[in-house]
Amino acid sequence: MSQDHRDSRGPRHSRDDRRDDRRDDRGSDRRDSRGRQRNRRGMADRQFSSSAPSQRNRGADPARLAAYRTLRAVEANDAYGNLVLPEQIRRLGLNRRDAALATELAYGALRQQGTWDAVLARCVDRPLAKIDPSVLDALRLGTHQLLAMRIPDHAAIDQTVGLTRSEIGAGPSGLVNAVLRKVAAEDLTQWLAKLTDGADQLTRLSLETSHPVWIVRAMKQALTVHGRRSGELTDLLAADNAAPSVHLVALPGLGELEPEIEHGAQPSTLVPGAAISGGGDLRRSPQVREGRVRVQDAGSQLVARSVVAAAPVQPGERWLDLCAGPGGKAALLAAAAAETGAHLLANEVAGHRADLVRQALAVVPDRAWSVRAGDGREITAADAGRRALSDGSDEGSREGSQEAGPTGFDRILVDAPCTGLGALRRRPESRWRRTPRDLAELTVLQLELLQAAADALAPGGLLVYATCSPHAAETTVAVDDLLRTRPGLQLVDAGAPVRKAALPGALAGDADPARPYAGAQGAHAAADAATVQLWPHVHGTDAMFIAHFRQTRISE
Ligand SMILES: C[S@@+](CC[C@H](N)C(=O)[O-])C[C@H]1O[C@@H](n2cnc3c(N)ncnc32)[C@H](O)[C@@H]1O
């Protein structure tokens, strides 16, 4: 078990926080094995390990090892931290406390990489790009412990040096030791004061909240574009650095919340049929194992529920989820389709993700859904008359091919691939991976998917566009572009269906996420047209954007 998980949360902004840490070493002989005094040169008031190098931690404790391996997989293999870490926790057999420590270490170091790199750049005598990446990851992990966690300095340094020795080799451990001592010479407040001295507001926020400057700028613009105050920027960026609560959804007609609430979940205050997990291993819940209760962000639940809430469902309606993988929203839609007599076609371009959709839908009666593995840009209105078999074969229809003259889908959800800037708190490394160049590619794809969806709509049909990004280019600009190129499409109010999908009053007042559509030249919008933008710092959800359109063209 790790030695330091008594209180591993929260940044240390002041030296007062460290007094307890120093007590640990009070009275110790601060000389190394060769009698040299430690911590001289401006660090006289600091204490590091009292033990000689030969007695110090030689190996890596399991929590740090899990975190370090996660950082390595993210850096070296482009892996996703939130997928690697649970695997490492399992493989190393960490208990609950060590798993929590490993999570804080790994996610914290990944999220705050930008700030930690700025600190480290001041503590090494060469560009960080010239440091071996495996050593740099150890330094980031050590820096996170020193500046963001209440771990005594000597433990943070000793453990990181031990980890370096066991995972990389004895050579770099001296460098790691020396650099981390320099890092420990200042606390976080002092480092931030140094780093931001003379910086403009965006750079200062970038360093204080550890976001790339371009994302800080984009978030500031997004707040304004979606009718919120730019003064909320600090809160929004801070929310990206907080662990999201785990929301559960009971699939309508299939799952029940009561057993989960009896086991410690709290009923959601935002969405009906939802709860916030009380922690612990969710796979212990039979309903979660069977897929009748699912983990799903409350914002995503509102997206799917707004598709259903937009108008009363007529039996026989044909629904399409154009970008369905891995199947979270499709599961909610399919369950609603099963209850109302509608049918959902869940489409996904990536074969392995289409398999995940099938798994997600398996619990729903299969008369209500089918899966198509294909490019959403190639879907047509005719696909509304075909019902691919839920085993994956797309062989026309069990019943649909008999049906005459399909006119298209009655409801289509385009939950488009996007930058994910609204879900940064879930993917700790993604803010450092994403670049403005991604936007150019994604916005083209988003518009192509929307246009295919518009073509596949039945007359009077509903098209719902959603992204887990509030970026203007992926939200309001995408809406403008679609309306300009599809005169038959009208933007309608998304506010009312989203509020209807939420618990009564949950989205009132300052929490109302709907804003009237400003309208671009040539855009066709209803008088009450409004788009919806949810926010982590206001609603506790991912920053989901939702727009509703109606097909007004007469059937050809
Ligand atoms: C934001 S995710 C959808 C999340 C999903 N709706 C859910 O709730 O679980 C976007 C999905 O679109 C898929 N995608 C990307 N390009 C596509 C295309 N051309 N056609 C269909 N799906 C596509 C991606 O593979 C990804 O699974």
Structural description of this entry:
The protein is α/β, with parallel strands linked by helices. It has three domains: 16-189, NusB-like (N-utilizing Substance Protein B Homolog, Chain A, Orthogonal Bundle); 247-295, no CATH class; 298-551, 3-Layer(aba) Sandwich (Rossmann fold), CATH 3.40.50. It has 22 helices and 13 strands. The chain has helices at 16-23, 62-77, 81-91, 96-111, 113-121, 133-148, 153-167, 170-184, 188-196, 201-209, 213-225, 233-240, 258-262, 286-290, 298-309, 328-340, 351-361, 430-433, 436-456, 476-485, 495-501, 536-539, and strands spanning 247-250, 266-267, 274-276, 293-295, 318-321, 343-348, 369-373, 409-415, 457-467, 489-492, 514-516, 530-533, 545-551. Strands 5, 6, 7, 8, 9, 10, 11, 12 and 13 form a nine-stranded mixed sheet that branches. Helix 6 runs parallel beside helix 8 and helix 7 (153-167) runs antiparallel to helix 8 (170-184). The longest helix has 21 residues, at 436-456. The radius of gyration is 26 Å and the shape is globular. The N and C termini lie far apart (70 Å). Mean pLDDT is 88; it is low at 1-11, 14-56 and 388-405.
